[in-house]
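Before surveying the methods themselves, we first show a specimen of the format, giving the amino acid sequence and backbone structure tokens:

:::
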Amino acid sequence: MRMLLATGIAAAMTTAALAAETPDYSLTIYSSAQPGQVNTESLANYGSALPGYALVRDGRQMKLQAGSGVLKFTDVAKRIDPTTVAFESLTDPTGTRVVEQNYQFDLVNRDKLLERYVGAAITVEQQRGDTLERISGTLLSAAGGTLILQRDSGEVVSIGTYSNVLFPSLPGGLITRPTLVWLVNAKQAGTHDTRVSYQTQGMTWWSDYNITLRENDSGCDMDLSAWVTIVNQSGASYPQAQLKLVAGEVNRAPAPARPAEMRMKTMAAAAAPLDDGFQESSLFEYHLYTLGRRSDLPDNSTKQLELFPTAAKAGCTKQLVFTASPQPWTYWGAPISDQGYGATEQGTVGAFLEFENKENNKLGMPLPAGRIRVNQASVDGTLEFIGEDVIKHTPRNETLRIKLGTAFDVVGERKQVSFNIDTSAKTIDESIEVTVRNRKKTATRVIAREYLYRWSGWTVTAKNREFVKRDAATIDFPLDIPADGEAKVTYTVRYKW
């Protein structure tokens, strides 16, 4: 149903100074989205539930009168947090102050208009076939969607279905957009350069990474590209805005932080020269990514931007890891004395990709948390998807390890060869045999990973191969297996408590 309002709407705002219509937007967007948390196929259903928020800075010229005056500001996001609003005059910051602020959000709709017009004259339109009939009278009731009118003749009519209602004007107190109303005391009259800042829900961002993997005789290399996705469901559009993204776990107390303090930190961190892409800089204990050009961010939109240029031919390592033993308990109340626990197991071979996030590996940049997808060229040259994983916020000079899937042509098993427990000596001796078979047509390297799970105190007393101690309860046996061949690991471990 449409609602027609007379020209009195335009006059409703003329009693106060109005903000100019040429905003200069700057947005700093914070995200608490976990990789894969937001379903991109149903973004319209999130709204204020989006895991993130934004600090909006709106710079524009406003006309102020000397002394106290009312200033109405309508261009705010529908999901604004009004407790975070800050207004300042850049022209006369010491002589201009806000002494009172009101946030008006009683937005006009059909039910509110009908409620306000009970006892007043309206006109109702009904479509009867090809004829449009108009019924005018005093509105007596609008309960339950049924309109009861008293016509000039005194006749009372009940109208259950109608196509339109005509109201003569917008009643006082109802507005078409959320509005901030300030009582401003200004020493200097005239046009001021001002800045309005506030926090709003309904915005977030996240990272996505794409790897093109190439294998060769000496190992592998890869091309890594990174993109960010920005979602705006704040209830406002931001044309030609400067965009900044904060990566890191920013704590938010129940009472929102003052935006003026956040603004000072953000502006200080953005002093580096910019190009068209994102420039990374430090912000407290986080990382700030500032886009070197302005960009439109309409309401109810999703925008994707390149985070940094593709890192080409970065070095990497593919790793196959065979595991079959149970992982150790997080807490031992007593040794695991059950002989059958983990005695014989069929294992799996996980396929992993490792690379160093270092400058000498053509990387060396802070990587925000996100989903990372890996592709590889098939025999006909087309790129095919081979696996994906998620990464946490990863600083420079760290090593990333991505699980891609499970190897098809490498299989194996683990079995217990002997077991002896001596309760008086408080020892367990256990011998294990691990067999790994490579059914590929080429040789491959596999790590046989063993978890020493029965007790925290252990010693390997015999072995047929050297191992690497990975941590307090894990050892790795590197195996070079020929094409269509197999390799065996045997070892004995003594647990003592």
